Each structure stands twice: as structure tokens, then as C-alpha cells.
Amino acid sequence: MLDKEREGIVVELCRKLIREQSYSGEEKGVAEILGDNMKAMGFDEVKMDRYGSIVGCIKGKKPGKKILFDGHIDTVPVTDPAKWIHP
What we know:
Layout: H1 4-19, H2 28-40, E1 45-48, E2 54-57
């Protein structure tokens, strides 16, 4: 469970991501938002490749297995905005 301060940070990040258009092939803005957030959180490395994919790395302090989180950041255009209740 998040405390109120952390919850506010997460909600604001989500708002920024939702406001940024990220159609397939146009994800650079969202990648920049995520990269800035990773840097602010203290990630050891943050890189964006030529395709707009963002990769962040946190170096572990102990030997052992590594964890990889992977996801997509692209969206598709709205087909009929008139049908949306919450645009």
C-alpha cells in the first residue's frame, strides 16, 4: 500500500503518461517522461534507443539472479471519440 505522498507521485506520473500521445512509432514523448522519472528515482543507467524504447537499469548490491520487467508504451488512436464517456 502506498502512503499519500507516494500515491500522489504515482498518480501524477500516470496523468503525464495518459496526456502524452504515444501511437505506434510515436512513443518518444512517453519514453522521455519515463526516462526522466527513472533518473529522478535514482536508476543507475537510463538509455533510449533509436526506436524510442527506454531501458533503465538498477545495479544490484548482491550477487544472484536478475529481474527484467518488460512492457509496451504505444497506444492506438481512438476510433470514435463520440462514444467515449471519459475522453
